[in-house]
Structure formats: structure tokens, C-alpha cells
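Researcher: I'm preparing a figure for a lab meeting and need a structural model of a single chain. I don't have an experimental structure, so a prediction will have to do for now. The sequence is pasted below. Please return the structure as C-alpha cells so I can convert it later.
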Amino acid sequence: MNRPTRGSHPDELLSAAASGDLTDAERAALDAHLADCPPCRETLAAFADQRRLLGGMRPVNAPRDLGARVRTGVESGRGVRRLPGWLVGMGASLATVAAAALVILVLGNLPLTPPGGSPSPSPQASSSAEPTASASDTPPSVSPQPSGPVPFLEPGDLGYLSLTGGGFAEYHLAFINDRTGASIEAEPPSGAPISAALSPDRNWLAYITQKGETGANEVWALNLLTGDTQLLGCSLDTPFTERLTWWSDPTQPEFAGRYLGYTLTSVYLGPSSGCPPNASEVGTTDPWLFDVQGELPPERIDFAEDTYVGSFLPIEGLMFMVSTAGATPASGVICWWCDYDPSPLQTRDVFLPVVSPDGNRALFWRGTMGAQPGGGWSFVSGGLPYLSGDFRSTGPASPWIGQPLFADLAPVGGEGFESGRMAWGPDNDLVAFWDGAWLGAPQSTDGRYPSRGVYVGRASEGLSAGSLLPVDLPDDAWIVDVAFAPDGASVVVTIGLSSAGIGDPPSSMLLRYALDGGEPIRIGGGGPNPSWDGPVVFGP
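Model: Understood. Here is the structure written out cell by cell.
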């Protein structure tokens, strides 16, 4: 290998040095360059620190046959045994290098190469790097999506789902741009939408709707470019299955939003229900993946019984975190196309982590879980939301010691929440908690804290009774969803209202609250009849 020229930076040699994969000639060339290049010396030192922290951690792996079942159009060849260039490129700061490595620390027990020294292939690997590999050793082929029309939502735009009709009339569901008033019609569901997530490229909307009054939900994907709607599966309406997560790889922004992760608790509603078949036993919970490019149907990830999808990791490759329910839940990371036997999830007493946008902290659940009758899991003792430590300044285990998210709760005798939902704001410090079902004695004189309402505050200070958003919530209403505006100055709350009786159409209020006070602003609700408006998403 030629010696690097002055003014250039040997990214590949730095990568190989970090993983101990240099030849003698490469080591000599790198040493010569390091003598005159302080930035490269600092980068190499940063990698040494991260590898020291990662030492001894065990990987969590997908089933051996997963790759063969989900891949089509694979590239021929293996990835080179080097860290990805975006991680070591000199255009990236040391903070970027550390943050990327810390994503692995956060959720993963992930090695830089799989067991046995065989590396996980890179989606950008050349087919001539090594002899031809089998399909089970290579990642799925990723082709750039063709350029298309302008996305329906511009950055910062607010979009919301609006359901009208019901009762003796047919349902109509539309996705509406609140700024422009434009709308896209979706396939009519049989119930109200309760969760939504916009793909990073703004081309797809994933959402969950109630399936009439069956106690089940449906998961949908709406193509915002074509208006096509696809039913992705049916699920029992059980706690912690409202999560929708999109893949976004910072090394390949053109492929952002290709894959959607979601969770289904298997349900059978009969052959005329329209629900796609689910191979799992009724009541079993599984993570699922959907490829928006249509190369494969929605795919059940057969990892372990009662597993919930968490989030894709913002690093190169299809890696995502999952949690298994149980008396003591556990969390870890799956690599989609890795081809070796699964091992138990290693991070115990941690359930469904929600990672902050910058990847440095996480919200998660801790407590004792129990199976619900018919399917699904919830907490039965000591269920509390927690805030992890900062992964930049702690070892691989200590972040999960964490601290309770609610600073003023004083649970006794196993008191805690049965379930609840939480989300990060865009500044990596704002957090929201809602839909909490408190199993203990009320901790306020009005008997409502901490079960009722939406709590918004800063993770650095902790939530408390004073974090309650001033939502005028009727006794028979509930909080459906909460979304932060991109500037962090407001939140939009979907409030579900109880129907007058069986068969009556559902209705909701969609209100925007400024976090510095003031009266809420109503969104939607302009029709002559009651409608269900929400949840909302914002153009990223």
C-alpha cells in the first residue's frame, strides 16, 4: 500500500488499526502518517477507548435462518473486515465517532464483528472483495429509490389523520396537511387511529387503528406519493404494542425509511375478518418488519416468544433492538442478516428502551411483568419508567442503573404503573409520559396523580406532579397520543372521547399546547359532525 500523501487521511488504515487488522506494511505506512497528523492520532485514541468499554460484551443474534427467509436480490461477496468509513472519516468529529460507538453501548452487547471473527457484511461492500458468499452471509440488496414528486409534508409541517363517518355510514380516513389543507384518502378502517409514525423520507405513513369493537387493532402503511394503503397485520390491543419505528441509516440517507418495525400480539378473528394470517400461537407477541419497496411481504421475526420491537439503531446495517417480556424482562439488539445462533438478551430488568434523538440516553421500563389473560404482558409490581445514564460518560453496564423518571413518586410495597407511553422531545432533554395506569394508592389529594393526564418536562430535572399539562380531560376521556413539535415549543395531544353507545362513531379532540403557557389551539374538528382527529406527525 502506498504511503498516504500529506493532507490526506488514511480512513481505511485507521479502521483496520482499530480492529487489529493491519499488515506489517500497512502498520508502517500508518505510523509514518500518525507522526505528522494529530487529528488521526486523536481519532485512533478515541477508538481505543471505545473498544476498551466494549470489551467483554456479548452479542445478541437473530435466528440462523432469518437471512435466508427475508433476503432477495442479494449482492455477491463479503464485506471487508474494516469499520465503516463514515465512522472514521476525518470529516467527522471525535464526538461523532464516540456517539456512533455509544449507540452500540446503549442497547447492544454488539461486537465489531460476529463471533468467530466473521464480519457482518456492509450494505456497500464490493462483490469482488472476497470469494462469492452464500445468500445467508450477505445483506439484502439496497437500490436507490427513484426521485419522485415533492413529499406531502414539508419539513416542520403538521399532518394528522381524520376519521369521519361510522354508525350507519361508511368510515372515511384521510391524512391532512394542516398548513395547506391538502389531504390523501386512505383505505377505510373499521375504527379510530391510535398511533402514527412518518418515515424519515416523508414518503410513508405507518399507523394503527382500532378494529371496530373486537378488542383488536390493525397496522397500516400509507404511501403518501401514490395514495396506496397496505394492511400489515392485526394484533390484540395489548400494552406496549403501539410502537412504530422506521429505519434511518445516517450513512445512507437516500435509503431512509425503507424498513418499518412494529409489534403484533397474534389474534384470530375468523376467515372473514380480513386479517392476514399469523403463524404464531394466539396471544403470542412478536416483532415484525415491513419493506416499503415491496420485495417481501411483512415478515415476522421469529426470535423468542413474547418479544417486542424497540427501535432501529442509527448505525450502518439493519440492526434493531428488541425486548422480551417475562417476570424479569430483558433487552438487546438483533442484526437482521447476521448468520449465527441467537443468544439470550443480556440487558436484564430493562424493557422497551426509547433512545434519545442523539443516541446518548434512553427511557426504559423496569419492574416485574405478568402475562395478561388472552395475550400480551404488563407490569404487575414495581413498574416504573426510568432514565438511563449518559452513555458517553459511563461504562457498558452502569447506564442501566438509571434513575426513576418521576422524581417525586414514593412507591411502596411494589406500587407502580401497569403500563404507559413515553417519548423524547427534539432537544434530547424534553420528555413526555402519558396513558399511565397506576396500580398503587393515588399520590395527590384529588386522587388523579400519577394516572391521569400528560406529563411533560425535562429529563435532567425529572417529571413530577407539577409536570402535568393543563389538559381539561373529562372523566370518560383518555390520552391517545402525544407528539412534540420539531422546535420543542409545543406538543399536540390527541384526546379520545367515549362514544354514547355501541355502534356510535368515535370522536376525539386534537389540541396543541404551547409549553410556555397560553390557551390550547384546536386542530381539525371543523366538520358538521363529530370526527376523530389524530394522531399527528411532523415533517422531519
